[in-house]
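2024-03-11 09:14:02 INFO worker-7 job=invfold-0412 stage=load source=structure_tokens
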């Protein structure tokens, strides 16, 4: 093997600050000042250093920087059930927003939200030196557990409800349910059935509330909600039950569909997919016999057969607002106390409005 080949085969070490200083023809201290955005550096010198950094592909050692600045520029995120569309989209929005603010996001995902699992996740992030955390909190019990923890850094919740003294960001789930239920009532349906999410989820609870109150305010009958678990299978089973009600009503009256099931609001799009299949297998036309609407506006919703009316949540806006809240608390020096909140600090909450997306599953557009 030639000397050239031997040299090429060796692993190259990462460039150091000394390498940058040598290429730029400046001192190690000058490079450090440029990296720290120190004002006392000539523009030409700064340009030389930045050019050397780009040429060498230098990346500053974050651990060394943390020792000097006492800043890690890392934020923690705790998420549960990241395989579901909502939590996964929220997590992505948070990571993207953190990068936009000049931070890295370190995430811990949990299969189940228990007080013990939550505390262990936060301890793990604390060991990694995060400056603050965002907790995606879908369950009321987890919010209560979080509120009792004393943490050395600020905390912001996503979808954590509004009854506890923790800064947070949420989509107005109740408004979303009102929009879609009102849309179905305005289309001429006497009532709207509901396939709800798990009762221990705050989002599911708020959607049931919005649906129920909209029916009550319209003087419409409030049917008993069917309960699912966010999966297409649970929606399919609920759809089978609803299809049976339609069949019973049709047979009893001898008409095409005189049953009371003419419109269904499903708490998420995945369950709506299961309902659509159950109706298709039962020979029911959508929206001819039963109109259907979902929630979330997953990317596939417009390609359902028929395209699904749904409620769109702006997960990018949720991420941006959450990270901005957390960064504001960091800049204000917030930290100690239950859930990282200062005793004298006001509890900030940001609510993002959802948007109704009307497609052919609920109308003959």
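2024-03-11 09:14:09 INFO worker-7 stage=emit residues=365
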């Amino acid at each position: 093997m030639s000397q050239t080949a031997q040299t090429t085969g060796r692993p190259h070490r990462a460039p150091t600050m000394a390498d940058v200083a040598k290429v730029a023809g400046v001192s190690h201290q000058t490079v450090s000042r440029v990296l720290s955005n120190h004002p006392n550096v000539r523009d030409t010198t700064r340009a030389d250093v930045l050019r050397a950094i780009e040429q060498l592909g230098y990346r500053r050692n974050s651990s060394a920087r943390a020792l000097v600045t006492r800043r890690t520029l890392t934020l923690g995120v705790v998420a549960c059930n990241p395989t579901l569309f909502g939590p996964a989209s929220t997590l992505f929005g948070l990571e993207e927003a953190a990068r936009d603010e000049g931070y890295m996001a370190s995430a811990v995902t949990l299969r189940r939200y228990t007080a013990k699992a939550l505390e262990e996740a936060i301890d793990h992030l604390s060991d990694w030196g995060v400056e603050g955390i965002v907790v995606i909190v879908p369950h009321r019990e987890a919010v209560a557990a979080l509120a009792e923890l004393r943490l050395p850094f600020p905390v912001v919740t996503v979808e954590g409800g509004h009854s506890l003294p923790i800064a947070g960001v949420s989509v107005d789930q109740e408004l979303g349910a009102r929009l879609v239920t009102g849309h179905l009532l305005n289309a001429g349906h006497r009532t709207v059935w509901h396939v709800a999410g798990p009762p221990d989820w705050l989002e599911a609870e708020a959607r049931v509330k919005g649906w129920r109150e909209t029916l009550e305010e319209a003087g419409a009958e409030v049917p008993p909600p069917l309960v699912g678990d966010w999966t297409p299978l649970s929606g399919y089973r609920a759809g089978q039950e609803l299809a049976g009600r339609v069949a019973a009503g049709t047979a009893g009256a001898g008409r095409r569909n005189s049953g009371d099931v003419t419109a269904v609001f499903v708490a998420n799009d995945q369950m709506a997919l299961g309902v659509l299949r159950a109706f298709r297998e039962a020979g029911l036309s959508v929206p001819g016999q039963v109109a259907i609407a979902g929630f979330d506006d997953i990317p596939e919703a417009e390609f359902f057969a028929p395209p699904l009316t749904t409620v769109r949540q702006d997960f990018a806006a949720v991420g941006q607002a959450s990270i901005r809240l957390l960064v504001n608390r960091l800049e204000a020096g917030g930290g100690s106390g239950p859930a990282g909140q200062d005793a004298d600090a006001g509890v900030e909450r940001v609510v993002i409005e959802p948007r109704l997306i009307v497609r052919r599953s609920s109308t003959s557009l």
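2024-03-11 09:14:09 INFO worker-7 stage=report msg="DSSP finds 13 helices and twelve strands in the chain."
2024-03-11 09:14:10 INFO worker-7 job finished
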